[in-house]
Amino acid sequence: MNTSILHPDIQEFITRNSGADIKKLALQKNPFPETDWILILNQIEAKAKAKEKLPTWFSAENIIYPSKISVEQTSSEKTAAYKASLINGKSIIDLTGGFGVDDYYFSKKFETIAHCEINPDLSEIVKHNYEQLKVTNCTFYADDSSNVLNNLNKKWDWIYIDPSRRNDAKGKVFMLKDCLPNVPENLDFYFEKADSILIKTAPLLDISAGLSELKFVKNIHIIALENEVKELLFEIHKNYKGEITLKTANILKDKVETFEFILDAQNQFSSYNLPQQYLYEPNSAIMKSGGFDEVSAFFQINKLHKHSHLYTSENLIDFPGRSFAIEKVISYHKNEMKKELLNQQANVTTRNFPETVENIRKKWKIKNGGNTYCFFTTDKNDNKIVLICTKIT
């Protein structure tokens, strides 16, 4: 860890230039020749990345950032805070500590935390930053997490793991066994050290694939931020044999949309109908969950088609996703399209429809934007239709 960047003049320069054009800045002469210019530029770029994602770090003084990529790959504060709200106890060990954003929020819920990070430089950076952030209940281990678990030889309330995909696994179907550490291979060893484990995976992991590799899964959490799925969490408890609950959360600026259901529950069926007064599009966390029959049953609303994943009702409900008032329903035929949408402006979405958004726009000369929302989809009678709507939420 290079501490020369902590010089007050350099820190002031980094703060002042946060958000500046790095390419232009790189052409300038280094005003601090005793410190590596690339290092200073990296700090400026990483701090700019942290502004929206990590406001606590961004606003604190004397923070040292790792590479820009490390900042891009870390959890955002919003997802870390939500994650910490899911579990509690006295002690937790993070086997893949990284930049320490998750552990910062775990530190508010647990008495003691162990941060394992095999990269000694990154471990030192996090230790330094925690001193600036006044985190006092975390111990740092710059070592392989398996060694730490063996050497400490103690029982933890929780183990937290965010395995990273091995480079040689690129191009393969994403599986947990292709990550470091290899969680499925080490699961029995981990259960010797803790009865509860929280595993974070990339959102592209297929839920059924994760379940095929793990055991004792109690809860699966899908976390989205502003309708973009960011994390998939598997919560496992030693010897757990009960039902698996799938919990979705879409973190928005002013609220968190949540929905949950029992995986593979019996007697959950969708009802179907033609478009009614209102249209609903589930948020991305629910879309990832695959709980489409459960949405229909819980909210008592109708699906348009088995594969369309759009819902409709006569009366407006509070729905975890986007809601629209249906102004008009037209058949996807040349005459009706010419009459209603040719050369018009609209936001176009397709759901269970044979043409792409790009193709539809080009074909009917539909300009993007405006207050009209058009859903090109298939109804319960397998007819291709267009729902012309105005957005409610």
Structure description:
It is a single chain. A hairpin with a 2-residue loop joins strand 8 (217-225) and strand 9. Helices cover 32% and strands 27% of the residues. The chain has 3 domains: 3-53; 74-262, Vaccinia Virus protein VP39 (Rossmann fold, 3-Layer(aba) Sandwich), CATH 3.40.50.150; 271-391. It is built from 15 helices and 19 strands. It has 393 residues and is α/β, with parallel strands linked by helices. It has helices spanning 8-17, 22-26, 37-53, 55-59, 68-73, 77-84, 101-106, 120-132, 145-152, 183-193, 207-213, 284-289, 292-299, 334-340, 357-364; strands spanning 91-94, 112-116, 138-141, 156-161, 164-165, 179-180, 194-201, 217-225, 228-237, 245-251, 256-262, 271-272, 278-282, 302-303, 311-313, 321-331, 347-350, 372-378, 384-391. Residues 321-391 form the THUMP-like domain. Residues 278-320 form the PG-1098 ferredoxin-like domain. Keywords: Methyltransferase, Transferase. InterPro entries: PG_1098_Fer, SAM-dependent_MTases_sf, Thump-like.
In short:
This protein has 393 residues and is of the alpha/beta class. Helices cover 32% and strands 27% of the residues.
List the topology elements.
Blueprint: H1 8-17, H2 22-26, H3 37-53, H4 55-59, H5 68-73, H6 77-84, E1 91-94, H7 101-106, E2 112-116, H8 120-132, E3 138-141, H9 145-152, E4 156-161, E5 164-165, E6 179-180, H10 183-193, E7 194-201, H11 207-213, E8 217-225, E9 228-237, E10 245-251, E11 256-262, E12 271-272, E13 278-282, H12 284-289, H13 292-299, E14 302-303, E15 311-313, E16 321-331, H14 334-340, E17 347-350, H15 357-364, E18 372-378, E19 384-391
Parallel strand pairs: 1-2, 1-4, 2-3, 4-7, 8-10, 12-14, 17-18
Antiparallel strand pairs: 5-6, 7-9, 8-9, 10-11, 13-15, 13-16, 14-15, 16-19, 18-19
Protein name: Class I SAM-dependent methyltransferase
InterPro entries: PG_1098_Fer, SAM-dependent_MTases_sf, Thump-like
Keywords: Methyltransferase, Transferase
